[in-house]
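pinned: reference chain
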Amino acid sequence: MPTSDSALHFSTLHFDSTLHFIVPGDPNQNTGGYRYVRKLVEALNEAGTKAMVTGVPGAFPKPDAIAIQAMDNLLVKLEEGSRVILDGLAMSAMPEVLAKHTHRLRLIALIHHPLADETGLNKSEQDWFFEREKLALATVGGVFTTSAFTAYRLADYGVAPERIRTAEPGVENPVGNVLPTISEALGGTQKARVPHILCVAHLSPRKAQHHLVQALAQLDDLLWHCTLAGSCERDSTYANTVQKQIDELGLNARIDLAGEVDAQRLASLYQSADVFVLPSLYEGYGMVIDEAIAAGLPVISSDGGALKNTSARPGVRLYRAGDTSALQANLKAWLGDPVALAQARALAENESSNVMSWADTASLLLKGLSYFEQRHCGETYFADEWLQAREAADHDARSVELTQRLDRWVSERISGNSDREGPIRILDIGTGRGSNVVYLAPALPMPQEWMLVDQDESLLREASHRAHQLKLACETQQRRILPKDFRELISSNTDVVTASALIDLVSELWLAALVDEVTSKHVAILIVLSYTGNFVLSPTHKYDSRLQALVNQHQHGDKGTGAALGPDAAARFAHKLKAKGYEVHVADTPWQLTGKDAKLAEMLMAGWVTAAKQQSSEASEQLDEWFATRKRQLLAGVLKITVPHQDVLGLPSSHFPDTAPNQTQ
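pinned: its structure tokens
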């Protein structure tokens, strides 16, 4: 397990058994995203898992004040430990609200497609949505997507694959179809039938219904009738544009704008249709394709976004998104050839048996939730118990020399400024239960004033209590820290910034932001006990190297701020400080664990095994054998474990005029 003492760890929570789905606005809206959530919730309840969906008022996806306050109020009311699945339209642009609640709720994102991928946004809007959603996705505990395409797309947002699970949409039971048989289509004694074209999607530029209207206008010599089913209210300007286009082309008698329809009417439309068309420029999945196939309908679809994958199946003709000429050619190929249409229908009917049900989707979601919980427990363990178990080893390992250097620097800072008044001000980031305060406070000049920052409220209370027992002035801030937050965190009167076992869990961007702000304020910084990668166990075991490689691979995974620096963190930190002209001192501070540290050693090894299994499930049997052997050795008192760490002290060089800049020890 990561050896962190930091705020990036959560306490173990008692989970409310209800799954809380949160969507923007009215949950009963008939778009694909809303139908996905409603049908999934129904399937979960039918399977015996209590689930409910709640709508949040206000404007979305760019939330207004009403939406932000409503989301905050809703999350406040949920019981601690509740599992909350947040639709991307609702949560992706309000990371600050999520950060307030991530310590007490199990927040999971449900992403149909990234907000910045919506058609019609200008560059500034795209950038805004991208940055907001990236922050929001870093805040939640896991991410569900509705397609493999969207899962892959989220790599651009810094979401590691191990933080994502996919639950593709299901469909209702097939509604059947009344298309003619091939023999009837060939002519026979049947009266010529007017093919009915169906498109189901709310009217919007991304859905591109105007492309379908344009293509059909060039086929006025063929028999066809078309129904566009979907809300005209979500983007009334675009809907009016499509209606005007139909009017100007003289197609009012052949194209119906049905508006938003209920489930019974929708089923009737599928049943009476001959061809389904989806001209969308981009989809995160395209669940209407599954619905059409389940109804035995042949489909003409663009390849926009995930549609390239969703529509790659028998009975579907694909064309390049936005290519109206190609759409027209595909329509003509079926509308002008009843035999080809009937053959496509037969392929679609055969493919209908392969379409997933909503029960299948519910099963995928439950498996994903189980995976997230196991991953969460593996990474966080029991936060308070873990932090208590490691404190003695932390204090034994820490560099006395670096502590003394910091003491001298602080003393000279005070004595060299005759106008200075008040206590030494120290900011401790990711304070946990206050281990850093307990170690450093007696070693530095008094009086002192500490600011303790952590996202775990219960740990902050304990840290504050311990600081007050040491007669220290102390304030606390409960918050998650993002790179943009350092400027307000490190006040102009701060003297020292500290953290323990933290930076191996953060990203390069996070660490760079910290260094930039610290050096701009000319304060000292002491970061201790950063894991450096090459742990050693004695006696050796044949699986030691395999375990270590997997653990270090896991250490580079996303721990909430992007790809973590892991074992490289201390060296990167020292390099960044040197580049800013700081005097840098580095000390090796390894844990040396033996039988007297049995509880910590077993917890540490259990965490290693869990992390390694997350990287390679195929190695589970080997890892279990390794752990069983190591526990027997620990019980027998013959096991020794060395876990390498480094402490790094950075000092503004001007305060040590007799010492060469950029010195490293």
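why pinned: The chain is about 45% helix and 15% strand. The two ends are 29 Å apart (CA to CA).
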